[in-house]
Amino acid sequence: MKNLLIVLLVLLAGGTWAQAPKKNGIIYKEHPYITIVNKSNDLFIKQDWAGLAKLYADTAIFYDPTSTKKISFAEEKKAWAAIAKDWGDIKIVKVGYPDGLQYDKDPFTVQSWWTITTVNKKTKKTAKFHLVQFDEFNKAGKIAVEIAYYDQTPLINASK
C-alpha cells in the first residue's frame, strides 16, 4: 500500500513537471505605442492640451484613485485644466522603461512607472509621488483606457 501511494505521488508530481509552457503574448521594450505614452507625458508637462487630446480616443475612459467611478474623456480634460490652475513646476521622471504588453486576447497595453514632482501654486509646498499607469490602445492606435495608481497623500499634504 505504501509503495502504491509513493508511485501515485510520483506520477502526479511528474505530470505537473511535464506540462508544456504556454505563451500569453509578447512584451516589448520598444514599440510605437510606448512612444505615444512617452509623448503624452511630454505634452502634459508642456500643457499642450490640444496635442495631448489627439492621442486619446473620443470615447476614452480613465480610472484614477481620486474617483470611485470611471472618468469620461470630457471630465478628464477638465481635470487637466484644474491641475494646470492649481499646480506648477511639474516634473515627470520615467522610472525604468515602459513595457508594451501584447496579450493574445486583450488590448495592447503600455505599463509605465513615473516619479512626479509638482508645487502647489497656493501653498508653495512640493508634492512628490510615484505613479504606475496602464494605457490600453484601440485598433486605431489611440489610448482607449488609462488607469493610474498613486498615493494621493503627498498632493493632499501639499494642498494644506
Report the β-strand fraction as a percent range.
35-45%
> What does the average pLDDT come to?
92
Let me know the number of strands: 8
Q: Ends: how far apart? A: 72 Å
Q: Which spans have pLDDT < 50 for at least 5 consecutive residues?
A: none
Radius of gyration: 22 Å
Q: Largest beta sheet, briefly?
A: 8 strands, mixed
> Percentage of helical residues?
25-40%
Q: What oligomeric arrangement do these chains adopt?
A: single chain
Please state the overall shape, judged from the principal axes of the Cα atoms. Answer: elongated
Number of helices: 5
What series of H and E elements makes up the topology? HEHHEEHEEEEEH
Structure classification = alpha+beta
At a glance:
The protein is built from 5 helices and 8 strands, in the order H-E-H-H-E-E-H-E-E-E-E-E-H. The protein has helices at residues 2-17, 32-46, 49-53, 73-86, 153-159; strands at residues 25-28, 56-63, 71-72, 87-94, 99-103, 109-120, 126-137, 143-150. A hairpin with a 7-residue loop joins strand 2 (56-63) and strand 3 (71-72).
How does this model look, in words?
The longest helix is centred in the first third of the chain and has 16 residues, at 2-17. Helices cover 36% and strands 37% of the residues. 14% of the residues are buried. It is an alpha+beta fold and 160 residues long. Strands 1, 2, 3, 4, 5, 6, 7 and 8 form an eight-stranded mixed sheet that branches.
